[in-house]
Amino acid sequence: MPIPGGTFVMGRDPMHAEDESPPHAVTISPFWLEATLVTVADFRWFVDQTGYRTSAERFGYGKTAVEGMDDWEWDQRPGLTWRAPWGDDAPPQRDDEPVVVVSWMDASRYCAHLGRRLPTEAEWEYAMRAGSDGTRYPWGDRPQRPDGSYGLNFWQGEDHHHNSRLDGYLYTSPVRAFPPNAWGIHDPVGNVWQWVADWYARDTYQRDAAGVTDPRGPESGWARVARGGSWWCSVNTCSGYGVFARGKSDPHAAFSNNGFRCAVDRTETGRG
Known about the structure:
Distance between the termini: 4 Å
Number of strands: 12
Strand order of the largest sheet: 10-9-7-11
Strand content: 15-25%
Number of helices: 5
Low-confidence stretches: 267-272
């Protein structure tokens, strides 16, 4: 999808999280962004074309979580990959669900194969907001849209022992299951954390406080940023689903709630 250039306010009051403040003006040049997360079918095509082996396949394990586990618990399982993100005994993902158990390295390689790249953190938030300002979701501050329907896939339950599935899903949902934002982008929040290009630093927003144009983040670091929250985020655990929260992880880590989408510098290039 073509994303128009413009200026928005990134970040929020420091009472929420130190690394999400202060609010500051960011100007973004026009670019192009995939309308949906990269799907299982998309990633299978890439693997079939290139023979690529993911970080989880090379390291011999991936990290997953399933209903019935404790909050914040993750299971590091030998042999776990994007082909069966909850193990061989669980139902497989549909082809139109977002690929998971992919590391930042895997996501970057996929995008590069198509002549694309991961969006920057600022590009990501700008596109997901789609002109909205200061709200947790593109449509407001409640997970329900104005018509009362859920606008995203996240965990409904007091803990992770049970998901009431009020949004219709246990784990990942198809990439077009929920209506897009005002700029045609599906899953602007929820479903899976979305890898972005930037290295993580706690003081990124503080360094950009005076305002910045097309920021790229730190030149190095120990973790890459992920945004948007996921199906595993709940009110009482993580609660990172929304356009403010900044996730982070080792670029080689492969979790069953991380995915991605690709960007291109020029709006006339690529598909949406």
